[in-house]
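Two folds, back to back.
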Amino acid sequence: MKSDNASSRSTQCTPSRAEIRQLAELALDIVAHKAGPPPRETEESRVRDLCNSMLHHSRCYQQIVLSRLAASGIGAAEIFERYLPAVADMLGERWVRDEITFVDVTHASIRLQEVVRHYGRQYAGEDLRLSCGQAVLMCVPRFEQHSLGAFMAANQLRRLGLVVQMGIGFSENEIIESMKHHNFSMIGLSASSQKSVAPLCRLVNNLRRSLPESVPIIIGGKVVNCGVDIQQVTGADMATIDVQDAAKRCGMLGGQETARTRSFERAESGHKPGR
């Protein structure tokens, strides 16, 4: 039995001839980049190459593509802010067009999330401000399946000097309990599709009943661009994919806006807290 398992692992780890050839071509391309001016590449072609590497089981392939980006002068911040979100979008688009399977997307997302964590640390190190003492609870609700966007948003908030606690797969009660035990200045809820709108409405309404109104609830993720006015429908304080703008409008980056102002604006727009 042990020999069978060892044989199975050996087979899984042994690349095919086509994979070896592909890796060799990429390695030669890296050498060419270092030896002279690189060939003209577009951002779209780089995103496509990086996307293909995430669909490949070889970490060596991913590292070669990422090294090629670095050799082209693309820094960790640009990879984190531009390329990784674009890869996530491309994976989704290719799945919708039936070019890849759900299993492909799942495995690629896991690999992409590992890269996000790695580059998130480098990204933060390039321009990390001293913590301003304010904390954010970034949640992926239990009814959501995708957490990549939340991790990326959390890394951007940390780079702005905020303390971020992640809540992956949190239920409504877990969010409320976290708020009771920590002094969070903002709650971020990440959602990925229109299917999440109805449960988001229920979640925001119930959180309003249980939490101080001074704590803003921000919704982010792809659901923001699903064709529905998410802020209006859910009663959240804000719906955006711009992390820095959300932090500014919540008064976390210099006090541009206060909780009292937010409460007044919500009352004026017809949103009443569900108390």
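---
second:
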Amino acid sequence: MNFSLNEFLISVSNTLDAIETDLFGVPTNHSKRIAYIATRIAHKLMLKPEEIFDLAALSLMHDNGATMKILDDKINYTVKQKIAVSESRKEHCLIGEANLKHFPFLTNPEDIIKYHHEDYNGGGFFGLSGDDIPLFAQIIHISDNLDLKFDLNHTSKELLVNYIVANRNGKFSIFLSDIVLDLMDEKEFWEDLKDENIKRALEHQIPLFANALSFKNIRQITHTLSRIIDAKSILQEGTQQDYLVVCLKWQDTIILIRRQNIKF
């Protein structure tokens, strides 16, 4: 069966949008911006298409283990504060890594989500430093930091440049810092980061791929999506687990899968 990985990735992205709307009242586009910045870096590095696809997937799902259940609804957090708190615990890196076990990556990336909060100089949850940190994890880390620290729709270029320069060879490698600084010189980069442009811009950056997958494979990757929904759900425990509907476009057919009734 010819299964469009891009269609599935967009389904994941749309699902995350729906969850963000449920949590915050509006989609934050946080993961889309991380994926966009990461893939722009990847193109600068001239990575292989398969690697760029996997990096995009990992970036979109980088905080899939960051449950929002730890937040007290009565606390008046801003959207940025809620995202920062949800990503501030070591466990979300381990949970996120485990959640993606069955995702159909093309290059078998390992420990990217686990180590995506490691600083180049050795700070972070696990104490890795330098090139001991996987490259993809470093790319997601610098991309994530920019969107968590600043409102990329409105923050001045000068503030962002100063932040990268101040953390060059500290939180971030000199190599990746310089690539991001180069990107910031492009007018298109700033236009693409705007909420109204980010979805189209990201889709343009992701190479097209389709794989031959069995129904068993498809079932496994829908479980990936269900684990993300369960982790982020603020609904009553079990609600999302009982009724997961995943939209998969395959050979021009929309397959609606109700999780508890999947039989392949």
